[in-house]
Design a protein that fits this description.
- By secondary structure, the chain is an alpha/beta fold.
- It has two domains: 173 residues, Rossmann fold, CATH 3.40.50; 85 residues.
- Helices cover 39% and strands 13% of the residues.
- α1 links the parallel β1 and β2.
- The longest helix is centred in the N-terminal third of the chain and has 23 residues.
- The radius of gyration is 19 Å and the shape is globular.
């Protein structure tokens, strides 16, 4: 199709199942966009113009913590997680991620690419994403989705680097028609991230955790999912329920990971990811209609 590709650098293993689910959701959304543009013509994967690299760097990112557990002869517990039980802070993880990604970003910059998007498919790492953005971003992703991007300094000819986090994207999408109440199934770190994002947009939505415990319930379900066990029953909620834990799927709930993947597919293909943006057709094609997502 002639244009340079977008290259997505996906920060995986938070957790691994969530990373694979994100890839599947993105690929499905991407295919829907392309099939609509093809208007009945056969679909081939070669129509896809998004390259991607998935990085699983947990042995590097948590080397110090893993060594501490090993020296003590302890089995891993929730203290190894980010933002849970006195473990690593999101800010520190953001610093480590920025250092770990540096050689990968430089390699990708040396290829023929239109833009580099750093994707973090984890609700709890929003603050880590912001630290990472301050360190590496040079493109429109350096501000929350839906806001006007200021000019960024970067060497002429280098592709922009953008960083996308789940809470920022999901909040931007929900801001088009914010619900009056929203119950979140989330870790404490993710819940705080959504509180900040909703407050930054002055949304009147009342947020609450989906069950009475603000610390343990989501962690219990998260650990069940990480260990491959089926989570418990859906929490009761008043108003809409948003599952903001990418390792968990709750039937009937809004799914933050699905919203995130759909947005990024439309963003990659210049679709109307947010209200007011115009889709760009394939060469020679009439303007694609909004897919209504």
């Amino acid at each position: 199709m002639g244009s340079l590709p977008t290259h997505d650098l996906i920060v995986g293993d938070f957790g691994r199942r969530a990373t694979l689910r994100y890839l599947a959701a993105f690929s499905d959304a991407e295919r829907r966009i392309l099939e609509q543009r093809l208007a009945g013509q056969p679909f081939f994967d070669e129509y896809r113009t998004v390259r991607y690299t998935v990085l699983g760097l947990l042995p590097d990112l948590k080397a110090e913590e893993l060594a501490t557990y090993a020296r003590a002869g302890r089995a891993l517990d929730s203290g190894i997680l980010v933002g849970v039980g006195g473990g690593l802070t999101a800010a520190e993880m953001g610093r480590r991620i920025s250092e770990a990604l540096a050689p990968w970003i430089e390699t990708i910059r040396g290829t023929a690419v239109a833009r580099v998007r750093v994707i973090i498919p984890c609700n709890s790492l929003c603050e880590a994403g912001k630290v990472l953005r301050n360190a590496v971003a040079t493109g429109p992703g350096n501000v929350p989705p839906g806001e006007e991007s200021p000019p960024h300094d970067r060497p002429a000819g280098e592709p922009p680097i953008e960083v996308f986090t789940v809470p920022e994207v999901v909040t931007a999408v929900l801001a088009r028609d914010p619900p009056p109440y929203l119950a979140l199934f989330a870790t404490p770190a993710a819940f705080r991230a959504y509180e900040k994002e909703f407050a930054s947009r002055d949304l009147a939505t009342r947020l609450r955790l989906s069950r009475r415990s603000r610390e343990d319930v989501s962690l219990e379900r998260l650990m069940a999912a990480v260990r491959g066990r089926k989570p418990g029953a859906r929490p009761a909620a008043t108003g809409d329920l948003l599952c903001a834990c990418t390792d968990v799927q709750i039937p009937g709930a809004l799914d933050a990971l699905e919203i995130f993947a759909s947005f990024l597919a439309r963003d990659a293909y210049c679709e109307a990811a947010l209200a007011g943006s115009a889709p760009t057709p394939f060469p020679g094609e009439a303007a694609a209609s909004d897919l209504g997502r």
